[in-house]
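Hallway conversation turned thread

IA: we were arguing at lunch whether anyone had actually written out Acyl-coenzyme A thioesterase THEM4 end to end. Turns out nobody had. So, for the record, here is the sequence (180 residues) and right after it the structure tokens. Reply here if something looks off.
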Amino acid sequence: MKPVRHPDAPLPGELLGAHYEQCFGCGGAQSHGLHLEARAGEGVTVIAEFTVQPAHQGAPGLAHGGVLASALDETLGSLNWLLRTIAVTGRLETDFVRPVPVGTTLYLEAEVTAMAGRKIYSTATGRIGGPEGPVAVRADALFLEVEVEHFVHHGREEEIQAAMSDPDQVRRARAFEVNP
Ligand SMILES: CCCCCCCCCCCC(=O)SCCNC(=O)CCNC(=O)[C@H](O)C(C)(C)COP(=O)(O)OP(=O)(O)OC[C@H]1O[C@@H](n2cnc3c(N)ncnc32)[C@H](O)[C@@H]1OP(=O)(O)O
């Protein structure tokens, strides 16, 4: 099935914000997190930026591959906002095409390519040197739609309780609950 942007999805260019303040990818409360900022694009696409910090190194002066995979995963995950669906990564296949030095801004783009039942197929690229620069990383992913109970059931009690008693967090979770 062709992916369809939800009618109440954020408008193209709109900053999506963090789905959870403690998220390693997008949360503001993680000092060594990615602080990735994603914006809605046209159709079922997003764009995002992430600047590699010293805490993200693998080899000296270079981004760790797992951190780059996290940036791709987070960008792909933010497509949830456009579908207004809650989905988690089932599979993430990553190509590392060029090394990414510390201090580099990665310009990411992601798109939902197909949907089948609970399955959401998507693809992402990360470019360096500018939004039109060479591709440094890319990924193909399969996300699976889940109910909000997925997190309540599997998450550690402490964080779940804190999230459920935070009205801002409850409001953010509700933004995903309206399905097409
Ligand atoms: C509050 C706001 C929060 C908003 C939250 C937003 C968070 C975004 C964060 C960024 C994204 C992440 O990192 S999310 C975190 C990382 N991911 C996770 O923790 C997920 C851990 N895995 C799981 O919980 C589970 O495996 C699921 C939910 C993914 C799937 O389990 P399930 O629901 O029981 O489904 P299951 O029956 O196994 O599979 C359904 C169909 O998908 C296929 N399938 C399943 N896994 C795979 C796979 N790896 N590769 C190929 N195909 C697969 C199956 O073959 C099947 O196909 P068929 O037989 O039907 O054809």
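OS: looked through it. The mean pLDDT is 95.
IA: good, adding that to the notes. Residues 19, 73-74, 77, 80, 86, 88-91, 119, 142, 144, 146, 148, 151, 173, 176 surround dodecyl-COA (CB under 6 Å).
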